[in-house]
Every structure is written in C-alpha cells, then in structure tokens.
Amino acid sequence: MSQTFRDPQGGGSLIVAWQAKARSILIVGGGAVAAGRVFNALEADAQVTVVAPKLCPELEYRAQVQQITWRNRTFEDSDLDGLDMVLTAISDASESRRIADTCKQRRIPVNAADINDLCDFWFMSTHRDHSVQIAVSTNSKAPRLANRIRRQIASSLPRGTGQAVEQIGRLRKRIREADPRPENSKRRMTWLTQLCDYWPIEQLAKLDSDNIDSLLDAYVQDHDPQSVRIRDTSESSGMPSPVLANRTHTPDTPNTGEVNQGRLILVGAGVGDPELLTVRAHRALKEADIVLADKLIPEAVLDIIDCEIYTARKFPGAASEAQDDLYRRGLEELAKGKCVVRLKQGDPFVYGRGGEEMLFFRSHGYESEMVPGLSSAINGPGLCGIPVTHRGVADQVLVMSGANRNGDLPTVPQFVATRTLVILMAVKRLEQVVGLLAEHGFPADLPVAIVERAGCSDQRTVRGSLQTIVDVVARAGHNPPGLIVAGYSVNVLSDAAIQDRYLDPSTLGLHSSE
Predict the structure, then answer these.
(1) Per-residue model confidence as pLDDT tens digits over 73-101
(2) End-to-end distance of the chain based on CA atoms, in angstroms?
C-alpha cells in the first residue's frame, strides 16, 4: 500500500460532549466536591438527585429552590434504578468502590472522586462562555496542571468568543429557515465557513438583529460574505466602525480575503528612564508605524523610537480637545492598517485615562493590547530614596490625584500614622493640598517630599515638613512633573544616603527643621 496513515498514540481518553439534557444523574455525597459535580450536571440540563445525610450550604440552597432532588439518607442500591450516570463524592473509599462495582454490574457509567481505577470517565478542567466549552484532560495524571493549561487557553481567546458563537448560531438558524432544502446544505456550510473565517471574533460578537438581517439578505442574494457592509451599532454616535467599514472590496480594489485591520498597543512609558521600560514596551515601540505620545514623555524615551511621533497638543483649558485630536489621529492610522502605539507616561491605568482610551477604541471596533509601565506613584519615590512602605514605619500606601475631573481637590481621609500618602499632579496646588491635609489632622511636623522627574537624569527630591514644605519649594523652585509624598517613611533612610545619592545640591539643608 503506497498511502501511509498516522499511527494511533494510545493511552488517551475518548473526548466527547455528552448530551445530558433530561438525563437522570445521581450524586452520592453532600460536600464541596459533590456541589461541584452538581453544578456541572445542572449546567448540562440534567435531572439531578443527591443522596446524603447532610448537605453543604450550596447544596442546601439548590435543594430549597428545587434545582435538585435530595434524599436525606445514605446510599441504597435501589437508588440506581432508572439512572443514566452516577457520581460518588464521599470520603469512604470502600463504600465508593462498592457503589462503583454495583454500577458496572448494571452497566451505569460511574465516576468515583479521587479513585481513578474505578472511573469510567474523568471530569476535565473546563472553561465555559455561553455555548463555548473548552475542556482540558491530563488523563488524571496532573489535574492541577490541567487547570493551569485551561486558564492559559481561556486567556488567549478573543474577547466575546462565546457571544460570537451565539450570534453565528442565530444566523445559522435563520439561514436554515430561509433555505431548508437538503440539496443546499453544502452551500449553507460553505457560506457560513467563509463568514466565520473572514470576520474577527470580536466583530462577530457585536452582530445584532439588524446585522443578522443584512447577512441573511446577502446569503439569499448569493453575495460573498466578505463583501457585506454592516454597522457596528455598539458605537453610540452611530458612525460605522472603522474595522467594519474597511472590509468591503470594489472592482478597483480586489478582494484578497485579508482584513486591513490596524493594531493598537497601549504602552506605559514608566518613570522616565528608557532602561526601565519593560522588554515588551521596548519591542512595541520598535514595531510601531506611529507613536501617539503624551506631552510629558521624556526625550530619552522618545529617542529610541524610529517611526513618526505624534505628540498630544495639551495645554491648560484644552485637555479634552487634545484628547479628541489623539483619538482622531489614532483612528485614521488604524483604518490604514497601521500598528499604532499609544504611549502614556507611567502606567496607563494609574491616573492615565488608559481605561477610557481602551473603551473609546473598543467602541470603534479596535481592541487594545495593554503593556503596563512602572508607575511614578510607587517607583518614583523609590528611585529618590523613599520607600513607600517600611516595616515598623509605614504599612499602607494611599495614592491620590490632585487634579480630579472637575478640578476639585481630592477627598482626604483622616490621618493614619502608618500610612504613606502619595498625591500625583498636585505640586502646582501644593499650598491648597497642605491646608487640606492640616484640616484632616495631619501633624505639622509630618515629613513631606516633592519628587521631581523621577527616573530622569535630572531627578530631584525636595524635602520639608507639612509646615515648611510650601516655603521650601518656593525657595528651591519646581521642575515638573512631580508628585507629593507625605508620611514618616519619607525620612526613614539616613540623611547621608539621601544627600549622597538623591538630593540636588541646591536643596541640601532644606529640611523640616527649617
């Protein structure tokens, strides 16, 4: 025989998705393991009976709301009558073995928790998202590792995978109703296959009734699914999604079957030193076609970028206009299929509006990749010799913004001696912040530091107390960006270490004693 075929590996399990709807399943046991088995059976729409003299709180609830039938006693052989499956989850190994042997005699599939040699089948580590179920089995060799593998697989799935399956299921049903002829089954399958292979899962998840009507019309009229133009109605303005709007082809632009979809990466630039960028952030900057950068990104970081840099044109009173300008430019480049890096100072999710930007671009059909950065809130003080926590001195950290959305000062809690307070974007309002802290019981002699340009070659720390810091900064001046640190951890390291390594010579001697 000239044709060769692969040899079976052996040692595996026959993986099937068993249709348990309305089937009778018995669980012997009333503890946490049994509760897990019950939940899995109920998710499969099975009729579940539990035999146990005592139930855990979860099973008590399920019995009360009549999700299960509870037999308040120990197992009896008559419990096996009319069953489709039995699961034991009891600590008595000999009784589990007896039940399993009886099930096998009656040809009832059985699983005995933690007794592998009695099991006709295993329970796998599963991920559930709507109709999507993903199961991982190690054939009972490494159950904990199966959980890890399952989590890794689940985390790699595109957002909305389960919803996409639900929407395709709706469309598939509509197509079968519109064209039920058996001889057209291959046409239906081919058309849906092209749709599923062409559209990103994130966009399939957004299909609504109108979109499904449009796709059904395209099928009926025998149009290629790749040529269908639909709207992403999740966008509040009603504008077509740039991802969807660019998925059409005309006679002048031949259809290659590929989507000209851009890539968006939200990158944290960290505290200022390019050597403190993450490896992933550095790679993203090198892969970018264009970088949309905040105004305060240090030159040393910008210098490693090879492509075009578009800087946010932010100035007082026009922050919203500048943000809109960045959104506009980002959408333009993404629509061209470009790799766009949105470079933000520090960590985008720590007072960086990173969440707002992700939601904006998501509403236009683009899912952002997130690359965290070192936040100045924690790492800025550390680079300047201030540990925000120190055993016996500070056991908690509170990070606040001095520039809230409406320009209000932050809401300050009452003073806690073991708390370090870090306030971002507030040095220009230092006198007001000091007054606010004093009103809330912060002592006058509490050490306070202004950390400036942390991570840059010209980083500087100006120190004083709550009583003196305003005057100290007035004398020493301020070089933004900076942050305020208040708490006893400010001076926990020796003055010699501070002066030798972290204090600018112009501020030496400017301490709380002045």
Answers:
(1) 999 999 999 999 999 999 999 999 999 99
(2) 96
Q: Which two tokens stand for residue 444?
A: 């006058």
Strands laid side by side in the 24-28 sheet: 69-71, 47-51, 24-28, 85-88, 110-112
Q: Which two tokens stand for residue 274?
A: 């390019």
Residues annotated as catalytic (active site), given as ranges: 114
Closest CA to 343 of 375, 311, 299, 377: 311
Q: Which amino acid is at 251?
A: P
pLDDT at 502: 38
What's the chain's length in residues?
514
pLDDT at 2 over 80: no
Task: Record the tokens describing residue 80, joined without a space.
Answer: 């096996």
Round to whole Å and give the CA distance between 477 and 475.
6
Per residue in 222-252, pLDDT tens?
A: 888 777 766 554 443 333 333 333 333 333 3
**462-463-466 Cα angle (round to 5):** 125
pLDDT at position 508 is 38
Residues 6+ away with beta carbon under 8 Å from 282: 274, 304
Whether the bond between 481 and the residue before it is cis, its omega within 30 degrees of 0, is yes
Q: Is 293 helix (H, G, I), strand (E, B) or coil?
A: strand
**Contact yes or no for 119/110 (Cβ under 8 A):** yes
Encoded tokens for 323: 């943000």
Q: Are 282 and 259 in contact (CB under 8 A)?
A: no
| Whole-number average pLDDT of the chain | 84
Where do we find the tokens 């959408």? 331
Q: With 0-12 CB in 10 A as exposed, 13-18 as middle and 19+ as buried, what is 152?
A: exposed
Both tokens of 361, joined, read: 């671009």
Spatial distance between the Cα atoms of 164 and 158, rounded to a whole number of angstroms: 10
- Backbone φ and ψ of 368, nearest 5°: -85, 145
Strand order of the sheet with strand 308-311? 308-311, 290-293, 339-344, 263-268, 368-371
Q: What is the pLDDT of residue 506?
A: 40
The secondary structure of the chain in percent helix, strand, coil, rounded to multiples of 5, reads: 40, 15, 45
